[in-house]
Amino acid sequence: MMSKLATPLFHTAIARVMAFSFVACAASVNALETSVTPAHKAPTHTVVKVQPKELVKAAHPLASKAKAPVTLLTAQSAVVKTALPVNRLPVVLDIAAGRAHVLVLPFAASRVAVGNPLVADFTLVKSNELYILGKSVGATNLILWDKSGDSRTINLTVGANLGVFADVLNRVLPQEKDIKLTSASGSIVLSGVVSDAIAADSVVNLAYAFLRELQPGPGVTGQNASSANNQQGFAGNAPGSFAANTSGSVAPTYGGASPAGAQAMGNAQPRAQVINLMRIRDAQQVMLEVKIAEISKTLLDKLGVKGVDRDGLMRWNIMPNVVGGASDGSLGLLLGRGTTGKGALLEANKNDGLVKILAEPTIVAMSGHEGKFLVGGKVFIPITQNTGGSSTVTLDEREFGVGLKFVPTVLDAGRVSLRVASEVSEISKEPLVMSVGSSTSILPAITTRNVSTTVQLRDNQSLVIGGLMRNNITESIKAFPLLSEIPILGALFRSSEFNSELTELVVVVSPRMVKATDQAPALPTDQFVPPSRAQFLLEGKQEGTPAAGKPAIKK
């Protein structure tokens, strides 16, 4: 009886145990699925592990079991998010101006401070997520505190967004393909090869203009706590405060930091620079042929009286430069009793003058470099200085003569931009007399004529610069003693000579583009062989005969 009753109970217990096992197995499967599924879900943002002092690389968002990070270049991703392993915080972080960066911290931060808010700004999105925005080119640092009060520092460098600058260069200078751009400590380093000096100057000017757009404007010294906490994009219900330094700028801190918790770097922002390391491809040289001429138009008016005795008994001449009879270009007037009597010859003689070449140099200079020359001398002018009751005489050096300075710049299509400055100076015939107390000093006076201009010429063209005039007038009187002082009639015994010297300085400049040759051109003297004694004495030869297969003169 007992066995019959135990059998159904036994089967019922077994069924219950099997049902319970099936439910437990299903629950374990569900639990396994619940614990595995989140590992295969795509993250909502880009997460990548970085090492200190390394650039940030974004991992593919769909990579679930990738062992190494994969770089994904997308134009839409404006924010880079970096997840850091435990106790690994980057010492140096580089970001571009105008770009944002999200840093996932390996610890919960209680407060954060930035050294220079003009260079970078931040907001603590979560306790372990820090949003960083590069505002302007420069360098600053971030100080982070954890809940235990320990601080960590990140040196932040905000560089120029060279991709934007490269696009500008491609649009403005499409022919320059070998320019390299590098950002270093907030500055732009230009390297590579350019076609000419004009292109190099254009690249440097564009780089400075690009940096000026990235520099913070003047007058921004900080902000107060209320305006900072209400800024758009800054999170936080936690109370915020600002730690200010003596210069008046502020460093925003979060999480109830005290004013002494962090010190800002202030407004001292280093000025970004452009470092030009570019070189010019096949640097060209310009040979400048210059002629500096002084055109003197001398007006010599001579008025005089000469008495002549045609019989040869008496000759007198008040103006000895006047010969008997009217010459070509002269006006003669004979006063007297005809051709046989005595008379007076009144003539006015005018002589027009000459051209004198002051200098004719030929100078070679590289494109973009200065070339100069000076033909003249130096004078030393004493200068007296009173120091502590005692006088000291120093000598001031002055140059005079014919000088020229020029800077050529080779452009495209055979054009040359030329900056020329020429000067002609000489010591004046009339010195400068200075009287100081009881002493009198005679100092040299220098007369100077100079001209400077910037023009654009083609190869083998010439530029003529003129108009530098100088007029010297001198007057001399020659008279017969006593007779020249008689009223009215005394004019017949006087001779007046007026000398008007009009001088114009003319500068003729002709640029020529030249290149150095591998071999020097042959000269006529290269084949000269001195004659032997027999050839010179017996045959009368001035030149000998070179031996076959040997050069005349060893070089």
Supply the key terms:
555 residues, mainly beta, Immunoglobulin-like, Histidine-containing Protein, Chain: A, eight-stranded antiparallel sheet, four-stranded mixed sheet, 5 helices, 14% helix, elongated
What form results from the Cα inertia axes?
elongated
Beta-strand proportion? 35-45%
Nearest-angstrom radius of gyration?
Answer: 48 Å
Which structural class is indicated by helix and strand composition?
A: mainly beta
- What is the overall number of helices? 5
Query: Which residue ranges are poorly predicted, with pLDDT under 50 across at least 5 consecutive positions?
Result: 1-6, 20-78, 217-270, 299-310, 312-352
Mean pLDDT equals 67
Helix content: 10-25%
Number of DSSP E strands: 28
Number of structural units classed as domains: 4
Oligomer state equals single chain
What is the distance, rounded to the nearest whole angstrom, between the alpha carbons of the first and last residues? 139 Å
Largest sheet: 8 strands, antiparallel
Helix and strand topology:
Blueprint: H1 2-40, E1 79-83, E2 92-96, E3 100-104, E4 109-114, E5 120-126, E6 129-134, E7 138-146, E8 151-159, H2 162-172, E9 179-184, E10 187-194, H3 197-214, H4 225-229, E11 240-244, E12 250-254, E13 274-276, E14 279-280, E15 285-308, E16 315-317, E17 330-336, E18 343-349, E19 355-359, E20 362-366, E21 371-387, E22 390-410, E23 415-427, E24 432-436, E25 439-443, E26 446-458, E27 463-479, E28 494-514, H5 533-537
Parallel strand pairs: 1-3, 2-8, 10-13, 10-14
Antiparallel strand pairs: 3-6, 4-7, 5-6, 7-8, 9-10, 11-12, 15-16, 15-18, 15-19, 15-20, 15-28, 17-18, 21-22, 22-23, 23-26, 24-25, 27-28
